[in-house]
Fold this protein.
Amino acid sequence: MTRIVGIGALALAGLLGAPGVHAACPGPDLAVVELSIGSVESKRPNTYDFEISCVIRNDGGADYVSTETAQGIHFYESQAGDSEPHRLKFRHFEALPMGETLKVSRNILDFPAEGNEGMKYVCRIEYDAGLATDDQTGNDDCNPINNSMELDWSAVRALLQGQMGNVIPGAPGDFRPVAPGDMPTVRTE
């Protein structure tokens, strides 16, 4: 399952997977809880440098314990028409205690303000197929519906302009910085 995040991805990060908001799971529940953009700079007209980050957290009722290479955080960029997404970053991990987080970040340089309609960034927790059948409950994710989050092009643009405090030229619908009370659009597939 994938959550598609609209304009307020930074605000959404505090709501999705916040302690007390998620459904209780007796075992480990690894969840993507944040996909955000920060450290935005514009060194040349119509281009941006920024950091994009993905945070996962164990929201379940038990520690996650596995082997180091059996699961990882995958960070992708996908353009319209791509047959396969481009992996930007990958991080293996072995354990994630209850309530603890892991973060993966990537610097994006010279990102054009125009011409990226149809692109998106995706953060996903992926597991080796054998984990589901190995009889080890410490490496079973009891809620796989929250293992992925996406930022589409309109959300990326809105977050970039919101942090720069300007309107991105050519933005459809006269995008302006997001007001603090605006809520994002979320769709679960």
Residues 3-188 form a domain with the Immunoglobulin-like fold (CATH 2.60.40.10).
